[in-house]
Amino acid sequence: MTADNKLADGFDPVTVADRAAEQAMRQVLAERRPDDAILGEEYGKQSGSSGLTWVLDPIDGTRGFLAGTPTWGVLVALSDENGPRFGIIDQPYTGERFFGGLGQAAWRGPRGQGAMATRPTAALENALLFTTFPEVGQPQDRAGFEAVASRVKLVRYGMDCYAYALMAAGQIDLVIEAGLQAYDIQAPIAVIEAAGGIVTDWAGRPVHNGGRALAAANPELHAAALEILKGY
């Protein structure tokens, strides 16, 4: 599969599939939710009058999509002025869907379906930490990530949005990333928080507009990781 590059210095791919998927979602919303706003990665902002915004990332993890790894996914969030209220992380290749908000947190896929809850891991020494890129972000971001990584039980890379789904499903404990956009993080926020986790920036503030994200399975683990990241 071929891809265009969004960056003059580096590689940030976009494919025909990215654009076609977002166009398809926008068409559905135009028919069913014409008064709502839309924010999408490929086609930007479309205003609305309802106070609600659909935040779309048609393929989160396009690098993984190009490489054939099943870590990419489709992200959809429904947000108001306070942030995401409902989110979906969908992996079409594996047939899995994780959703959360409006009083529910659940998954379904080829192996069945059920409610989701995050893990109770309270100590960093027992935590499983995921991120997408080994370089994480800028040098300062990398230093903050490594400071937490040096304290945990296991670190894995290259997971894209699937890492957030695994957290909501009770498989891992921490995700630390930097350089995110609103469409990268809003659906994961809704799904993880509905399952009992917490997602903020590295200073403990709301992160639904993007930036540096710390997602943790529970408040205790979040506080432990945050105490380290605040220094960076």
Which band does the percent of strand residues land in?
A: 25-35%
Gap between N and C termini: 39 Å
CATH class of the largest domain: Alpha Beta
- Assign a percent range to the helix content: 25-40%
Computed structural class: alpha+beta
Just name the CATH architecture of the largest domain: 2-Layer Sandwich
* Order of neighbouring strands in the sheet with most strands: 4-3-5-6-7-8-9-10
Instruction: Specify the biggest β-sheet.
Output: 8 strands, mixed
CATH homologous superfamily assignment of the largest domain:
Fructose-1,6-Bisphosphatase, subunit A, domain 1
Key terms:
232 residues; alpha+beta; Fructose-1,6-Bisphosphatase, Chain A, domain 1; D-Maltodextrin-Binding Protein, domain 2; 2 domains; eight-stranded mixed β-sheet; five-stranded mixed β-sheet; 6 helices; globular; magnesium; Inositol_monoP_superfamily; metal-binding; Inositol_monophosphatase-like; phosphatase activity
Task: Give a written overview of the molecule.
With 232 residues, this protein is of the alpha+beta class. It is globular and about 50 Å long. The strands form three sheets. The protein has an eight-stranded mixed β-sheet. Strands 12-11-13-15-14 form a five-stranded mixed β-sheet, sandwiched between helices. Strands 1-2 form a two-stranded antiparallel ribbon. The protein has six helices and 15 strands. The protein has two domains: 4-115, Fructose-1,6-Bisphosphatase, subunit A, domain 1 (Fructose-1,6-Bisphosphatase, Chain A, domain 1), CATH 3.30.540.10; 124-229, D-Maltodextrin-Binding Protein, domain 2, CATH 3.40.190. It comes from Sagittula stellata (strain ATCC 700073 / DSM 11524 / E-37). Mg(2+) binds at residues 41, 57, 59-60, 184. Its cofactor is Mg(2+).
